[in-house]
Amino acid sequence: MVRDVVVIVGSLRKESFTRKLAKAVVAMAPASLKFRFVEIGNLPFFNQDNENNDTEVVARFKADIKKADAVLFATPEYHRSEPGVLKNALEIASRPWGKSVWGGKPAAVISVSPGAIAGFGANHHLRQSLVAIDMPTMAQPEAYIGNVSQLLDAEGKLVNPDTVKFFETFLKKFELWIEANSAASEGLTKAAA
Fold it and tell me: Which end of the chain has a smaller Cβ tally under 10 Å, C or N?
């Protein structure tokens, strides 16, 4: 079975290392995982006063998430946390209360940094939010990618063999995570019917 996986990149920068790395990882994916990037830069700021009046952009974003089987988050680290634009996207698609489109979707997180700390803070802050919106998030392998500028060539391809091997394992484990959590979710749906 081919699984539809949305990729959400938490960086809006045109030459974003996070986006380049996410594209390189997706290019390595097995045929059983179909990745598609969903953009978050055009979403309005979340405002609870307007949460029941979705604009066309918000409605399309929610529909993209709703039809996905899983979500891969790729985030840089801004001040030891995920970027505001990424947190905003989580809020937009989790409201109004009881109508979240995130719930039950298997997720994985990759944090990226040009420095050595590798986005550890962003990775863990994002995971806290994913727990709150009911997204089972793959625990292992953890993907903290530091010194990213040294891992990509001018075309955005991964050049470090160890990093390539790591992401081959990461993608295999993510595929298994999606299958296990999709089966569990489908089982709960049948039991509730």
Answer: C
pTM of the model: 0.94
pLDDT for residue 187 = 53
pLDDT tens for 122-173 read: 999 999 999 999 999 999 999 999 999 999 999 999 999 999 999 999 999 9
Task: Indicate the residue type of 161.
Answer: P
Q: What is the pLDDT of residues 69-91, one digit of tens each?
A: 999 999 999 988 999 999 999 99
Residue 67 token pair: 């039809």
Q: What are phi and psi of 107, to 5 degrees?
A: -135, 160
Q: Are 93 and 100 in contact (CB under 8 A)?
A: yes
